[in-house]
Write a structure and sequence with these properties.
The protein is mainly beta. Helices cover 5% and strands 41% of the residues. The protein has one helix at 3-20; strands at residues 48-55, 73-75, 78-82, 87-92, 98-103, 113-115, 118-122, 127-132, 138-143, 153-155, 158-162, 167-172, 178-183, 200-201, 206-210, 215-220, 226-231, 246-248, 251-255, 261-265, 270-274, 283-285, 288-292, 297-302, 308-313, 323-325, 328-332, 337-342, 348-353, 363-365, 368-372, 377-383. The chain has a four-stranded antiparallel beta sheet with strand order 1-32-31-30, with no helix packed on it. The protein is globular and about 55 Å long.
Length: 389
């Protein structure tokens, strides 16, 4: 047997083995063989179509195990996102081409906010920026002397920030003038996870924010007065309330990194609590709450009592916030892939490679899914109707 024939045989053996391996979560499917003697099988269809990939990585060659925590935000025809290398980008939504780039004082881990022709975000050196949305020129900046890792809350002409050291600050949108501030101090030598809660506002103008020691505040957005305080007890090592509180009617859902996940009223009364830890935003859909827990699993919980409808182990590593398009949930994994899960059954349907995994939360604009990988790649996928083989 000559070398060429041997290579051909090896190739066909590989195809046979791949076909016999059956359906897999990684998107490998059996070959659909066309034969006159058998009925034609339906074509296999993924729940997405790749649009483009754009590289935003910039920095030293010897960056080791980089992590990108800034979540992209789509506004009109542009995508805005910060990077670990200390740059903030505006990219074209259509093709991923760069519109402008702004150099920051430190790495950008926060999600931007947009209001009145400006984009607002903070960096790891404690600087908070207001840039012109169209040109990227700096309008003003402010140094708060502590990492800013989350998005600001926006209301009228005011901004509300929280730093990793528990400082809550209200600013004017126009000039960045401090209107009021409150300081929450954690206990000395307490172990915490790097991060902090994202401040959220309810329709009445009350501000809600959590802290590293498990304390949860409700404040007046006008004066900064603390309306009530609740300690979310946890028997685990980490008490950090690092997620994004979800407000629905008179109910607020909050969680700590190691658990619990708790439902409270706007007056602070606890309705229920379950042993689920999470540090990313929840996905709310009708009577269910979809939660990416701290152990790499995606859960569907009943809102009425927190009971589990289904639980799926997505993989090893941390999960991003889940997003929903039709009947498919998209959720990133810090170690490897973007993953697609059937929202009804919890079945892991497909995975898509992302360079060095995904640590920042994805963003869904209509049917366009955008996410930033730890390898400094900004991905855009077009979500389509679910198709399960």
């Amino acid at each position: 047997m000559d070398q060429r024939t041997e290579k051909v045989l090896i190739f066909f053996l590989f195809l046979v083995l791949l076909q016999s391996s059956g359906n897999g979560a990684y998107g490998f499917e059996p070959f659909h063989v066309r034969n006159r003697n058998y009925p034609r099988q339906p074509a296999f269809k993924l729940p997405y179509k790749p649009k483009w990939v754009s590289r935003v990585k910039k920095g030293g060659v010897f960056k080791y195990k980089r992590r990108e925590f800034s979540s992209p935000v789509v506004y009109e025809d542009r995508i805005f996102v910060g990077t670990e290398s200390g740059y903030f980008y505006a990219m074209k939504k259509k093709n991923g081409r760069r519109v402008w780039r702004f150099k920051t004082e430190g790495s950008v881990s926060s999600r931007p906010g947009i209001r009145n022709g400006k984009v607002f975000f903070g960096d790891d050196e404690g600087y908070f920026y207001a840039l012109d949305l169209q040109t990227g020129e700096k309008i003003w900046s402010l140094n708060l002397d502590a990492e800013i890792l989350t998005a600001p809350a926006l209301k009228g002409d005011q901004l509300f920030l929280v730093t990793v050291e528990g400082r809550v600050v209200a600013l004017t949108e126009r000039e960045g003038t401090i209107l009021w501030e409150r300081q929450h101090s954690t206990r000395p030598l307490q172990m915490t996870i790097r991060g902090n809660s994202t401040p959220v506002l309810d329709p009445e103008g009350n501000l809600y924010v959590g802290f590293a020691d498990g304390t949860f505040w409700s404040l007046s957005s006008k004066t900064g007065k603390i309306l009530w305080e609740r300690r979310i007890e946890s028997g685990e090592r980490f008490h950090d309330l690092d997620g994004v509180p979800l407000i629905e009617g008179d109910r607020i859902y909050i969680s700590s990194f190691d658990g619990p996940l708790t439902a409270v009223t706007k007056s602070g009364r606890i309705l229920w609590s379950v042993s689920v830890g999470s540090a990313v935003p929840f996905l709310s859909e009708k009577d269910l709450l979809y939660v990416s827990d701290s152990q790499g699993s995606l859960l569907a919980l009943q809102k009425k009592d927190g009971s589990t409808l289904w639980k799926t182990k997505v993989g090893e590593g941390a999960l991003t916030a889940p997003l929903l398009h039709n009947d498919v949930i998209a959720v990133g994994l810090s170690s490897s892939t973007m993953n697609f899960v059937d929202r009804t059954t919890g079945r892991l349907m497909f995975r898509r490679f992302a360079k060095k995994g995904i640590s920042s939360d994805p963003f869904l604009d209509g049917d366009q899914l955008c996410y930033l990988s730890n390898g400094g790649r900004l991905y855009s996928l077009k979500m389509v109707d679910k198709s399960v083989p």
